[in-house]
Design a protein that fits this description.
Elements (H helix, E strand, L loop, with lengths): L3 E2 L25 E6 L9 H8 L5 H9 L3 E3 L2 E2 L12 E6 L17 E4 L3 E6 L16 H8 L20 E7 L2 H12 L4 E9 L6 E5 L2 E3 L7 E3 L7 E10 L2 E8 L6 H8 L23 E9 L6 E5 L4 H11 L5
Parallel strand pairs: 8-15
Antiparallel strand pairs: 1-2, 2-5, 3-4, 3-5, 6-7, 7-8, 9-14, 9-15, 10-13, 11-12, 13-14, 15-16
């Protein structure tokens, strides 16, 4: 027997008098659902009964709402998903939207713009800024900033983002502002007509000053949060120029021919040259770097609409510039 939903077909109820008013990015307060536990649910777990009461939400999200104190049992907060219920008890849940459903909303933030017209935006992404919402980072991303920056972003796939930099990678990025521009940029990247160069600081010294890494990249079968060079992965190529080596570190210029997830990080680590600070791929915090030592320094492309050639150079932030100077002897620029 399904729990008896109290009231009429409209089972929304007011928040209890002692509840704090909820605010969700300026949106209306979440819906409240309340039900009596029927005889068929006697002895069932709380989270299983909630699935019946709110079937449009995943069980994991409902468990998360329990943990956050959004579920009450006979008026008292119920904090344990495995709690067994008794017939006649009253269950109430505050249906807070999932973080993912609230992710794609405008959030004003400063953007370091290098170029902007009606079709194209080029910016200097700081280290620490996530590009696209994902688990653990559902707000405060570049996508949120783009939605606040211009109205058309809300009509575009991923707000016009056509490529990404990792959270801790700094440097130059391009974004389409119209559908025509996004389409052209994606096409140009697929045709390898967009040229991107990175500065990198690696642990170790390569055997040659100039070399290419042409190795397929896919999900690491042993550690799912990482990528790896794997048979059957997607074709990937990185050209590497060693500018200087000192004290067991190397200053590298990397040119991408493809744009796979974590490509430079994975390729260099596969050659025994993990990035300084890149703990995910075997690097260690050194040279004052507590993040991966990678900076997108140059971008060359044809304007997506006019086709005029464009080139941008982006100076590294202070932490990277200081570390680079320790290895090269002169600041990066």
């Amino acid at each position: 027997m399904v729990p008896d939903v109290r009231g009429s077909a409209d089972y929304r109820e007011a928040l209890p008098a002692d509840a704090e008013p909820a605010e969700f990015d300026g949106q209306a307060a979440p819906e409240i659902r309340s039900a009596s536990v029927g005889a068929a649910q006697h002895g069932e777990r709380l989270d299983k009964v909630l699935v019946i009461l709110a079937p449009e939400f995943s069980r994991s999200h409902l468990q998360h709402l329990i943990e956050l104190g959004h579920v009450r049992l006979d008026g008292a907060v119920a904090a344990t998903a495995s709690r067994r219920l008794r017939a006649g008890q009253v269950v109430q849940i505050e249906l807070v939207p999932t973080e993912e459903s609230r992710a794609f909303r405008p959030q004003a933030m400063p953007l370091a713009l290098l170029y902007e017209d009606e079709h194209l935006l080029v910016l200097d992404k700081p280290a620490g800024l996530v590009v696209h919402p994902a688990p653990g980072n559902w707000s405060g991303t570049l996508l949120n900033g783009l939605l606040a920056h211009h109205a058309l972003a809300a009509t575009l796939p991923r707000a016009g983002i056509v490529h990404r930099l990792d959270k801790d990678t700094s440097g130059v990025m391009m974004v389409g502002k119209t559908l025509a521009a996004v389409t052209a940029l994606v096409r140009d990247m697929a045709a390898r007509n967009v040229h991107r160069r990175y500065l990198a600081l690696a642990q170790g010294v390569p055997p040659r000053s100039e070399f290419s890494i042409d190795a397929p990249i896919g999900r690491d079968p042993a550690v799912r949060v990482r990528m790896a060079v794997v048979a059957g992965g997607r074709p990937s190529r990185t050209d590497v120029l060693c500018v200087a080596s000192r004290g067991g570190f190397s200053a590298l210029i990397c040119t991408l021919h493809t744009g796979r997830t974590h490509q430079i990080r994975v390729h260099l680590a596969s050659r025994g040259l993990p990035l300084v600070g890149d703990t995910l791929y075997g690097g260690r915090p050194q040279l004052g770097m507590v993040r991966q030592a990678l900076h997108a320094t140059e971008l060359e492309l044809a304007h997506p609409i006019s086709r005029a050639p464009l080139a941008f150079a982006c100076t590294p932030p202070p932490d990277f510039a200081a570390a680079w100077a320790e290895v090269v002897g002169t600041p990066a620029g």
